[in-house]
Design a protein that fits this description.
The complex is a heterodimer of chains A (about 325) and B (about 400).
Chain A: H1 3-37, E1 44-46, E2 58-62, E3 71-76, E4 79-86, E5 89-93, E6 96-103, E7 109-115, E8 121-127, E9 130-136, E10 142-149, E11 160-167, E12 173-174, E13 181-184, E14 187-188, E15 195-201, E16 207-214, E17 217-224, E18 229-235, E19 238-242, E20 248-254, E21 262-268, E22 274-276, E23 288-291, E24 294-301, E25 304-311, E26 319-322, E27 325-326
Chain B: H1 6-12, H2 26-56, H3 62-89, H4 92-113, H5 117-144, H6 151-180, H7 184-205, H8 223-228, H9 231-245, H10 250-261, H11 270-293, H12 295-314, H13 320-346, H14 355-384, H15 386-411
Classes of the chains: A mainly beta (about 325), B mainly alpha (about 400).
């Protein structure tokens, strides 16, 4: 082959590859847009959603692919009202909601959007990475989020989490909880590989529980945001979520199994007693309390995600709450 | 100990004598093009991988983070194997090409793996193996396609082209996501096509010296010990490993920068872009400079720039923007003065039939030292806190430079 032939072969190959790549892009585009124009499935309607939900209904984010997914919806059994609010993680309490979103552009930017009762944006905080968890304290004052931050170069290690907290009353933002002073058995723990995630607040709007990892170990910490402190109180606890009465934590714990790495447990805070829940499938989520006796969480199914609930005392069986949904919010009565 | 002479290597790569006046050979430009295209492909995937795992699949990326250390170890071993077999079979292009091919296939593997964490792990591992396999033979080809006098320019231009691809990749990826309404599989398919194009350029335009005149038996069976018996090369390794061991990784550097300046979160992803831009602009000029004033001198200068970075981070009273720009530019200068220049320095010290394995050994030594450095820096941070950790790094790097200077001078 002389140089001319080589160039022709290369050009021909480049054309073939461009056509192939272009055709696939068009096919993918077709696939995602037809999902919009297709007639809505039975029980699905589109319309505005507010923070309060009707009796027996709950807010969550729709899953399952297509343009109707990834939006906040009011779900009641088989029927749902899907809003146009796109979130990758969502949480709400009476009067306040938080929506973690991704905005595409030359680079993807991520935001924590604080929303009012009509789900309209009140303020927005830019995030450092891909959103993962969100929680709000009972009155709506403290808002926490966790994101994943990837390393700085291809195939380099350094994937980590960042957790931030917004005090909506003072407007102060803790960008990264790693700034907090961490103590274990009264001794200050300084480490470069600290990662915080999965915050949950108590009723005093200041005290929190969260997970912290360092040196391959996982700890449950407790602290007060105002004191900028965290104290290790237990080991091997991830993504805690405090019960409405403040006496129990539900969290995920590593099982050591490759196919089902996490299982949900409930800890009684007074006695420290830990109870595995009846859900045996893998649960990688920060669970939420459906009521004082039941927790709910997202479970992967094929290409989609469903919301399930299970009794918080280890008894019973998991039951399906909603197909094609995730990020469930405990029921909030509709005001007025 | 110059084994390859200017004329023989130019003749071997098919470049006519008069063309030797040009800065680098056509083969180096072809290899640069392959790297440019391949980096578009691989950085497309890197840019969207966390988003894909978390938002697209609902998986927890930390599940993969746990495997990362293991992968790095495997990559180090694969790199040694890639260099060894490339030399032993005298088939540099073949081994490099299989590395590029493996990484291309891995892109489709990511689609095929679906939501299975173990299968995604396999696809990522295949990608890493491909990268490990190709690096040393590719650098050996660059080295063998250039005269001893132009090694710095050749590596500089290659690294600059490589970085152009790395910077372009994320833009292509997000354009595809925007066009398709978040179809991640489209990004992987486009990335696969781009990778195939890179492979085609390698097959069509990169030439390799025919293996005829070297008898296979001339290649030592155990290259590692054989290589370290070459006094000049041994000196370079002895200088390079402590330098890597005393260098803080970029992730730590950016964390320190953010802790110091407390800038808005949205800027964080742009920090590596700033470093890459400075690297891109300076790689070729500093490579050229290294050929003129001495590679060891430029290399030492590069590590002094790293020390400059740390001093800027700790200097009190400087305005934030000065620290930010200064650190990013100096880190880029440091990459431009060390990454390709070290290969340019070491390449001509190795016999032609051991070049891939020699460069593989040097790169693996650096990579393992960098892993140890991350662990060490973390430990010192835990023990003494962030400020003293940075000062320890300054002291360690200054000591490593003092040790390296005479060693490198003696080698070149």
């Amino acid at each position: 082959m002389n140089n001319r032939t080589r160039l022709i072969v290369a050009a021909a190959f480049a054309v073939v590859l461009t056509v192939a790549a272009g055709a696939y892009v068009l096919y993918a585009r077709e696939r995602t847009t037809t999902a919009v124009t297709a007639a809505p499935s039975p029980g699905v309607s589109y319309g505005p959603v507010t923070v309060g939900a009707a009796e027996g209904a709950m807010l969550m984010v729709t899953a399952g692919g297509g343009a109707g997914s990834g939006r906040v919806a009011e779900v009641a059994g088989g029927s749902r009202t899907v809003s146009d609010l796109r979130c990758v993680r969502f949480y709400a309490v009476e009067g306040t909601a938080v929506c973690l979103t991704a905005e595409r552009g030359a680079r993807t930017r991520y935001f924590a959007k604080v929303l009012g009762p009509d789900l309209r944006e009140l303020r927005s905080v830019e995030l450092q990475g891909v959103p993962s968890r969100a929680r709000i304290s009972r009155s709506g004052r403290m808002i926490a989020w966790t994101v994943f931050v990837s390393g700085d170069s291809y195939l380099a290690s350094g994937l980590s989490t960042r957790t931030g907290i917004l005090d909506a009353k003072t407007g102060k933002v803790v960008r990264n909880m790693e700034e907090f002073q961490l103590f274990r058995d009264g001794k200050r723990l300084q480490a470069v590989d600290l990662n915080y995630w999965g915050v949950t607040f108590t009723g005093d709007e200041d005290t929190y529980y969260a997970t912290v990892s360092t040196g391959g170990e996982l700890f449950l910490v407790r602290g007060r945001v105002s004191a900028r402190r965290a104290e290790v109180i237990a080991k091997d606890v991830e993504c805690p979520s405090l019960s409405p009465d403040g006496t129990r934590l539900v969290y995920k714990k590593r099982t050591g199994e490759a196919t089902r790495p996490w299982r949900l447990y409930v800890r009684d805070l007074a006695s420290g007693r830990e109870t595995p829940l009846a859900e045996r499938e893998n649960v990688d989520d920060q669970a939420a309390w459906l009521d004082g006796q039941t927790v709910m969480y997202a479970r992967l199914r094929g290409d989609s995600t469903d919301v399930w609930a299970v009794p918080a005392d280890g008894s019973g069986e998991p039951r399906l709450i909603a197909r094609d949904a995730f990020s469930p919010v405990p029921p909030i009565p509709r005001s007025g | 100990m110059y084994v390859s002479s200017s004329r023989s290597s130019d003749a071997a790569s098919g470049v006519p004598r008069r063309m030797a006046l040009r800065l680098v050979s056509g083969n180096v430009l072809a290899l640069g093009t392959v790297s440019l295209i391949t980096d578009i492909s691989s950085e497309m995937v890197t840019a969207i991988l966390p988003v894909y795992l978390v938002i697209g699949l609902g998986l927890n990326p930390l599940q993969f983070g746990l495997l990362d250390g293991l992968y790095q170890g495997v990559t180090a071993l694969v790199r040694l194997a890639g260099g060894y077999f490339a030399d032993r079979w005298r088939r540099l292009r073949l081994v490099a090409g299989s590395g590029y091919a493996l990484s291309a296939v891995a892109k489709l593997g990511l689609i095929a793996a679906g939501r299975s964490v173990p299968l995604l792990g396999v696809a990522l591992a295949v990608d890493r193996i491909g990268k490990g396999l190709r690096t040393a033979p590719r650098d050996a080809l660059i080295s063998l396609s250039s005269s001893p006098e132009t090694q710095g320019s050749a590596f500089g231009i290659h690294r600059a082209m490589d970085t152009v691809g790395a910077l372009a990749g994320p833009f292509v990826a997000f354009a595809v996501l925007g066009l398709t309404g978040d179809a991640f599989d489209a990004v992987f398919v486009v990335s696969f096509c781009v990778a195939l194009l890179g492979l085609a350029v390698l097959v069509l335009f990169v030439r390799e010296k025919p293996p005829a005149h070297v008898r296979p038996s001339a290649v030592p069976r155990i290259p590692v010990t054989g290589l370290l018996r070459l006094p000049a090369f041994r000196r370079v390794c002895a200088a390079a490993v402590p330098l890597s061991l005393a260098t803080i990784s970029d992730s730590f550097l950016f964390l320190l920068l953010q802790a110091r300046l407390d800038f808005d979160a949205g800027w964080f992803p742009l920090l590596p872009v700033g470093v890459a831009a400075s690297f891109l602009v300076l790689a070729a000029p500093l490579g050229w400079l290294a050929d003129r004033v001495g590679r060891s001198r430029v290399l030492v200068g590069g590590y002094l720039a790293v020390i400059g970075c740390y001093l800027l981070l700790t200097a009190p009273g400087l305005p934030g923007p000065v620290v930010l720009v200064g650190v990013l530019v100096l880190r880029g200068v440091a990459y431009a003065a060390t990454d390709g220049v070290l290969m340019a320095l070491a390449g001509p010290l190795l016999p032609e039939n051991l070049r891939a394995s020699g460069l593989a050994l040097l790169q693996t030594g650096q990579a393992l030292a960098a892993m140890a450095a991350a662990w060490l820096f973390g430990a010192v941070w835990t023990w003494l806190g962030p400020d003293l950790a940075v000062w320890s790094a300054v002291a360690a790097l200054a000591a490593a430079v003092l040790v390296a200077r005479p060693l490198l001078r003696g080698a070149s």
